[in-house]
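User: Predict the structure for this protein chain, please.
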Amino acid sequence: MKLEPLRSKHIRRCVGIEHILFTGDSPWSARAFRSELDAGGHYLVALTPEGEVAGYAGLAVAGRRGEWESNVNTIGVDPAFQHQGVGTALLRALLAKADELDAPVFLEVRTDNVAAIALYERHGFTRIGMRKRYYQPSGADAYTMARPARGGSGEATG
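Assistant: Here is the predicted structure, written as structure tokens:
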């Protein structure tokens, strides 16, 4: 797999994966992806050797130099490519970006997504709270998880 910045040409496939993965919980639209890219988020795709989108991930960064905070907004892996390290590679790339900024990282994850919770815990996240009925329209609960800042330059770059 090769990771590269998510571009407009990838959005249609990302939306398709969203609809497979998050049917009951308001999958992101093309407009939502475009909005995140326009806002300057750090979004990546994982591409197969043939150039097919196997997964995607996004990190939002807020604040100012020395006070950055980041949030994993999404990670999605096509079921055909799950359990092959794609999600791990995407998460590690997002965390590397947060580490460059010395930013803590936050995220929400469904309380019943055991595999994702285990992935996040392996990468230093801990549960810090619960959001009841966070995912809509399913009403599924979410854990809020956090990973402390791990040092870096504090420079924000796309």
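The longest strand covers residues 53-62.
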